[in-house]
Design a protein that fits this description.
Order of helices and strands: HHHHHHHHH
Shape: elongated
Number of domains: 3
Largest sheet: none
Length: 142
């Protein structure tokens, strides 16, 4: 079994597929991970092919990541933006992805959940700030 695993990891395409099985990746992340094991010319060829085939797509990655972070994990735009930028995604792509997700995000339902959880508006504001939301988004609701 060891030789099978070693063989798969020695092929850059197979290694890229292994990485993508764990979770989607940005182009920057994939380039970084591949360059730890393979020469730059090989990495660029693999990246180019993965982008051409639509396997690597920063716009799709940013949208999926933002949707998961905001809708599932309940992180706000400020934190999601910082995370995506740290993953090497272009600022314009990041902003578009966050805007798209926030258009569909149920702010009213989220605020109602917070009001049930916290009885103090100050605690709600502090929670929102810590999670990366701008508390002023919810001022009209208070």
């Amino acid at each position: 079994m060891g030789s099978f695993r070693k063989k798969r990891a020695s092929d850059p395409y197979s290694y890229a597929k292994i990485l993508m099985r764990y979770r989607p990746r940005s182009v920057w992340e994939m380039r970084k991970r591949l360059s730890e094991r393979f020469p730059d010319d090989v990495v660029e060829k693999v990246i180019s092919e993965l982008v051409d085939k639509g396997i690597l797509d920063d716009e799709r990655f940013a949208l999926m990541f933002a949707r998961s972070e905001i809708e599932v994990k309940r992180f706000g735009p400020r934190i999601v933006r910082r995370k995506l930028l740290s993953l090497g995604v272009d600022e314009g792509i990041v902003d578009r992805a966050i805007d798209e997700v926030m258009k569909d995000f149920d702010l009213d339902g989220f605020l109602k959940d917070l009001k049930r959880r916290f009885d103090d508006h100050r605690k709600i504001r502090e929670y929102l700030y810590r999670r990366g939301f701008d508390p002023s988004m919810f001022e009209s609701e208070s």
